[in-house]
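User: My instructor asked us to take a sequence, write out its structure as tokens, and then describe one feature of it. I'm not sure where to start. Here is the sequence I was given:
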Amino acid sequence: MKNKNLKVGIYARVSTNEQNSKTQLLELRNFCERNDYLVIREYVDNGVSGSKDSRPAFDEMLIDMRQGKINCIIVYKLDRIGRSLQHLLNLFEEFDKRKIDFISTTQNINTNTPEGKMFLRMLMVLAEYEREIIVCRIHSGLARARTEGKPIGKRGKDKGERRKSGYWLRWAKQKELVLA
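Assistant: Let's start with the prediction itself. The structure tokens for your sequence are:
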């Protein structure tokens, strides 16, 4: 029998397109199954930084929450929904006003308890701190690269005219392989 009181929205996020959200989703689905929670929808942002307050799937989840379609949000880790302390505080203030439960499966956060709320606030501060440390490391690395005279940033594509002979030679070579 499903827990009819909780209408769950699962949220997963990875920062780059090279990463994969399957690990998070598998854990979240298993958690919901073990606890007999009814999953209304899965929201997944691939290749989107947690430092951004607005993300496509995240925004859809908030709309569904505001329309009463879900009343519980379950994530793998707190930093999946955000890394800015102010963003998280605003988000959890809205969760509180709308009576939205929040669960982080790997950090044992459940906003139904006073201990869970306290632990959540501590983790919010740590999530922002971690993000600031990452930014400092990036800036330090860029400064070091500049002093060493290394090029910084993405290199633009060459917009010059191309010779067509290279294309023809590759085409001819492919035809030779096919005919051989």
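For the description part of your assignment, you could build on this observation: The CA atoms of residues 149 and 155 lie 15 Å apart. Try explaining in your own words what that tells you about the chain.
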